[in-house]
Amino acid sequence: CVVWCAALLAVTPVTSQAETSLFGRVAAVAAPNTPWDDAWTDFKAAVDQNKQDVTLEYLIRGEVGNEDESLRALRRNRVQIVGASLSGMAVIVPEMTVAMAPYLFESEEEVDFVYDNYLLEPARKLFAKKGIALLRWNEVGWTDLYANRPVRLPEDAKNIKLRGAPNIAAQVFLKGVGANSIPVGSMDLVPALQRGLVRGGTSNLVFHYFSTRPYATHVTLTHHSYDTGGQLANLEWFESATPEQQTVLMEAFRPAAKDRAAVRGLMTALIANMRDEGIEIIEPTPQERAAWIEVSKPLVHQIIEEVGGDSQMIYDVILEGKKAFRQRNDAEPKTSTQGEAE
Predict the structure, then answer these.
(1) Which of 150, 140, 152 is nearest to 112 (CA)?
(2) pTM here?
(3) How far is CA 341 from CA 75, 292, 296, in A?
(4) What distance in Å separates the CA atoms of residue 200 and residue 193, rounded to the nearest whole number?
(5) Which residues pair with 147 in a beta bridge?
(6) Are 204 and 226 in contact (CB under 8 A)?
(7) Are 228 and 139 in contact (CB under 8 A)?
(8) How far is CA 317 from the centre of its chain?
(9) Buried b vs exposed e over 159-173: b needs ≥16 C-beta within 10 Å?
(10) Beta strands in the chain (DSSP E)
């Protein structure tokens, strides 16, 4: 953040506090009593304590609409701050789809290291070109597979009508494992499941638990993709703030480690809840996981080709970060098995 913030502040006009009052609207879809709801509560408290004349209106219960609608409002400066998933962010910067390629990351520790130390600044530059300031990463979690039948291996998914998010990475993955991929928007997903137009799909467990759980008897913890979302601001609005106001906004977010721990703890609790409800939670064995990885090997290059733009650059940055993570772990007493990236 230091380099990016310094560069951003350098082009921001310095205006006295007496002359500048900053008002903005925050849009999100945060369910009550979830880590995201708690994070916004803490953010609001931190902003309210500031002495830099920053006033924000919070529309975090979906008042602006779904994620796509909130992001459109952000680009039009109708709202000024949005919390979004990486899947949603990739609508603005398609190159970020590459970061959701199947089996690109092996562990949460690796994800955190690469995103924080390698991917943040290149992503910020791409979002700035679209009029968006990427303030920081947000936590969403692993993407898994749910269905109305057991899916242990890629061949079990063959010809099943499965819904993936309407982004290239999700669609390429499902087609790559032989599923009949159906791109259904989030608003139309439940009706599609009710009518049997799809028999399952892929998503993070929070979305599945609160939205599609009644329509799946089996959940496979494929952990094939990781969705690290972000906190975004309209760049023109953010640059209109004084350096002190920008600092208030940046420092109001909770430490990333706290947010990550809260979301990951929730995932563990949701898995336990589903088991108690009689839903089969399938945890692939190392051999089964290897089968998923093997069939996914060529897919990242297909995603890069289809997305185009700076996709190869994003992929190269991720590989550089993965290499550094591996070297760091090799230099420490403990070791970490890395996933297939190429």
Answers:
(1) 140
(2) 0.88
(3) 33, 13, 9
(4) 7
(5) 200, 218
(6) no
(7) yes
(8) 18
(9) ebbbbbbebbbbbbb
(10) 22-27, 54-59, 81-84, 132-137, 141-147, 161-164, 180-183, 200-204, 218-227, 230-234, 280-282
Distance CA 315, CA 313 (A): 5
Give which of 229, 234, 238 is closest to 91, Cα–Cα.
229
Give the contacts of 147 (CB within 8 A, at least 6 positions apart).
157, 160, 162, 199, 200, 201, 216, 217, 218, 220
Q: Are 91 and 68 in contact (CB under 8 A)?
A: yes
Q: What residues does 23 pair with on adjacent strands?
A: 55
Structural tokens at position 205 = 């467990």
Cα–Cα distance, 287 to 302 (Å, whole number):
25
**Tens-digit pLDDT profile for the chain (342 aa)?**
434 443 443 334 433 334 589 999 999 999 898 999 999 999 999 999 988 899 999 999 999 998 999 999 999 999 999 999 999 999 999 999 999 999 999 999 999 999 999 999 999 999 999 999 999 999 999 999 999 999 999 999 999 999 988 889 999 999 999 999 988 887 889 999 999 999 999 999 999 999 999 999 999 999 999 999 999 999 999 999 999 999 999 999 999 999 999 999 999 999 999 999 999 999 999 999 999 999 999 999 999 999 999 999 999 999 999 999 999 998 887 544 444 444
54-59 and 81-84 as β-strands: parallel, antiparallel, unpaired? Answer: unpaired
